[in-house]
Amino acid sequence: MTGDDDVAAVLDAATAAAPFLAALPPDRRGRGLLELASALEDAAGELTEAAVADTGLDAERLRGEITRTCTQLHLFADVLAGDDWLGLRVDEAQPGPPRLPSTVRFRMPMGPALVYEASNFPFAFGVLGTDTAAALAAGCPVVVKTHPGHLATSARTLEIASEILGRLEWPDGALGALHTEDGAVAAMADTRVRVATFTGSLAAGRALFDIAALRADPLPFYAEMGSVNPVFVLPEAARTRGREIAEGLAGSFGPSGGQLCTKPGLVFVPRDSALEAAIADAVRDVPAARLLTERISTMYRATRTALISLDSTEVLATGRRGGAGEVEATALAVDLHALDAPGSPYLEECFGPLVVVVRYDDVAELSAAAARIPGSLTASVHAADGEESGGDLVRLLADRVGRLVWNGWPTGLRVGQATHHGGPYPATSSAQFTSVGAPAIDRFLRPVAYQGVPDEALPGHVRAALVRLRG
Fold it and tell me: Where is the Aldehyde dehydrogenase domain (predicted)?
């Protein structure tokens, strides 16, 4: 026992469930995901009420998040209906000389997965969120580390999921949970856990990454962490669409208390443009918000105070004042050179409703600014027709981020086949992966090659895919 967690029992159950899930035909896994989605939808009312009480987030936003979570489950059921996820490759036998046996390469489940819930998405990154959906689709049992910021929501979701999986006669260990930090860390160090994922702060993600790397058998670990998500506004776009851009910015960094991993944290604007005043006006109308946990609120207030105390910082505008326990949106302004200093605090994520407006004098300065951006999930460029430097910026920023947005905003991530929600460190620990969209299943699969093995010895779903491949 570790705290209130019986880690050994939870991991024993997950280990026992692994062969069942690995052998379960993909269509049955897919049906299981669809059943879970239906159950979530049926319970949307009570789950929304629980999440509002847990997090203080808006009910409409949370209801939409349940819909997104169901969409993710449906997406992975669709993935399993095809063969692409298998990564099937074949070298047919050759009689020679020299004689070469056949080789069939495909992907198989990694094994029991430890999934950390996120604080800011109690459903989409929760018990049945994107990580769990992808892992179950891959055939991996899941152990969820519940988040203390929405325990009641997680507990009810687990009850609903367990009822569905029991009715489908999946083993108990297909989906389990740990509730303490010590229990989850013990699981990270346990060799029965074969893959782990995390969404949260850079400090926590890096600490877990180090635990994973220092295991006797290093643990494949995917962490989504800090991201500043810069926005670059070019002069003509600022001149012709200033009000629209300002309102878009306020609508991207302000909602949900700015507690979104894709929240724009830096926006580069031409000095002395009308856009800056428009941004100030839009920010003044952003409502105050209660943050998810006391710890997040304390960290936000401390970071905000520290930035405001710097000589290079100007407070551009603050949002509507709130009640006890709420924080107000804040727009700060700095000159571009404030980003030059090593370890500039403006280049670190502030989790909450704060954005830093960065003034530049000439678009030629933006190339060097782009190069200073730490690895991020997104970068956005606002440009008018004919502003060729926008294309140059996109090419430069592709080296720094996982998703590039043109004349739009990074929040409101679309969940689909081409989604990429990842990026270079410190945005994530593994820039080649995504935690959202169909390719998120890749984190829970590993390749294996069968050389000279008769087709009848291959897993049934691989044999079926081979028949389809060979026509």
Answer: 4-274
Output the domain CATH number for residue 379: 3.40.309.10
Calpha distance 58→64 (Å, rounded): 10
* Strand partners for 107: 447
Q: Are residues 248 and 357 in the same domain?
A: yes
Catalytic residues: 224, 261
- Domain boundaries, position 86: 7-225+428-470
* Residue pLDDT, tens place only, 242-270: 999 999 999 999 999 999 999 999 999 99
* Residue 235 pLDDT: 97
* 92 and 122 co-located in one domain: yes
One domain, residues 168 and 274: no
DSSP H or E run through 448: strand 445-451
Nearest to 334 by CA among 250, 266, 420, 275: 266
Instruction: Note if the pTM is more than 0.85.
Output: yes
- Tell me what the pLDDT averaged over the chain comes to: 96
How many domains in the chain?
Answer: 2
Q: Is the pLDDT of residue 1 over 60?
A: no
| Residue-by-residue DSSP string for 38-66 | HHHHHTHHHHHHHHHHHH---HHHHHHHH
How far is Cα 139 from Cα 149, in angstroms, rounded to an integer? Answer: 29
Task: State the CB neighbour count (10 A cutoff) for residue 355.
Answer: 29
- Give the type of residue at 250: A
Q: What is the largest CA-CA distance in the chain?
A: 81
Q: Provide the 8-state DSSP code for 464.
A: H
Are residues 440 and 342 part of one domain? no
Rounded mean pLDDT of 20-41? 98
